Amino acid sequence: MRITAIAAVLTLGLTGVAAAATDPVVPFTRQAIEWKTCQDEELAKAGARCADVTVPLDYHNPTGRTITVAISRLAATGKGRIGVLMHGMGGGPGGRGLNGPALTSAAMGPGLAARYDLIGMDPRGVGRSTRINCGLTGEWLRSAGRDRAGFRRTIAYEKEQVARCQERHADLLPHITTRNTARDMDLIRALLKAPKMSYIGTSYGTYLGAVYTEMFPSRVDRLVLDSALDPARYPVRTFPDIGAANERYLDAWASWTAGRNAEYRLGATRRKVRATVEGIIAQAARRPLEIGQYRADEHIIPSLLAGIMSDDRYFADQAGVVRELHRAAKGEQFEPSDTLKEYLSPPDSGLDNALSMNVAIFCGDAPAPRDPEWYWRNIQRSRATQPVYGPLANTVFPCAFWPTAPVEAPTKVGNNHPALIVQSTGDTRTVYEGAVALHRTLPASRMVTLRNVRRHALYGVYPNRCVTEAVNAYLASGTLPKTNVTCQREPTA
């Protein structure tokens, strides 16, 4: 793995060592941060300030084009200041992080939050930073369908999305990578005059945090990785892992729904409810469902189901959406709910930005198998045990058609830096097994496992006192638990 000299340059620029004065990256470490009122109402209300930081588009050619990265800060106000804590990208990749200080502060509580400078960031390509919008026509992660014809349509669709991205942003795309985002983070750390920086990352943000720690190990203080993925399987092989987890979620939801058949009319047993779901997809394969002004085909419905079925506190809402799909499959005419409209509507600018970043980061970070038959074989193997989600989790990756190779090799993660890994056992987006693999990859880490909960993302967004207290104790003391921690689901009100 190649580690560039830029890491050293950032520190040298901060400490003023003359030997680095001629390095072209040094001027970026000397820019003044101009803090101003945040445009985000929640951040402004919390008292945060925002700024734009200038960074090189290409760190290997820092005298070339520059872009901006938007950051926010909720400054420490209490005694016993600990340091800087960055709330990493909230997921995706493509999730915004500028509002991270507000989220982190609420989870930490006022006493602990006041001991940190809380930093948020919209990574390069995202939100208020220099952004990319490819003009995608819908979700890129679509089920491959029920047969060869559906698979061919999926290939054509992914090729079209890649072409849209390349047409708009061919100059930016090679540099929209996790490693460059990590370099941006370290430049921000230097500008904040912080010898070290603590970090909280969720979902894809756990991979970003792991990469940052690998590239800049001496710059990391406390590290929290919430709903983690296995860096060794990122990105292409991460997706097949979610198939089984989503099928298990569907089983649990189907059992719950079967017990309420008088209300939802989807089947009186788990098997019958599942048969209803599979029947909806089969009908959509014969002819797309018409739901008001929207249409839903066999490629969209599994993605829609995976999207809504991510938190088992909301089985009732999810059953309501499936009931709508079932009505449409029977030919009924009705106005869809707001939830269904949101999933079936074309991407707005914000969603397009997030989806475009998905594709850009995945394809910029690592190569993908380019033979469509590789994907088809995986799809076919998955159908027996994953009839709903196998063709989605194993679908052809847009990176199979990406015209350029990544400019850098993927980062190989593996070090002895302490980290706290937080994970629910029923996570359908970043599966529990991936967090266990990351724990093995980082042997000095500890795990906080939340059992009997099907939920992606926990700290600050899912109420569980055990999880919150474990994370806050680590952030306050810098000391990991002596052993792994097991938390249980709390009763709902």
Description of the structure:
The termini are far apart. Among the domains are: 1-30, no CATH class; 31-133 and 180-235 and 412-488, Rossmann fold (3-Layer(aba) Sandwich). Helices cover 42% and strands 13% of the residues. The chain has 493 residues and is of the alpha/beta class. It has helices at residues 6-15, 26-29, 41-46, 100-108, 110-113, 148-169, 178-191, 204-215, 241-258, 261-264, 270-286, 301-308, 315-329, 338-344, 349-365, 372-382, 390-393, 432-441, 465-477; strands at residues 36-37, 49-56, 66-74, 83-87, 116-122, 197-202, 220-226, 289-291, 294-296, 420-424, 446-451, 485-488. Helix 11 crosses helix 13. The chain is globular, with a radius of gyration of 23 Å. The strands form two sheets. Strands 1-2-3-5-4-6-7-10-11-12 form a ten-stranded mixed sheet, sandwiched between helices. A two-stranded antiparallel sheet has the order 8-9.
Question: What's the structural blueprint in terms of helices and strands?
Answer:
Blueprint: H1 6-15, H2 26-29, E1 36-37, H3 41-46, E2 49-56, E3 66-74, E4 83-87, H4 100-108, H5 110-113, E5 116-122, H6 148-169, H7 178-191, E6 197-202, H8 204-215, E7 220-226, H9 241-258, H10 261-264, H11 270-286, E8 289-291, E9 294-296, H12 301-308, H13 315-329, H14 338-344, H15 349-365, H16 372-382, H17 390-393, E10 420-424, H18 432-441, E11 446-451, H19 465-477, E12 485-488
Helix pairs in contact: 1-7, 7-8, 9-11, 11-13
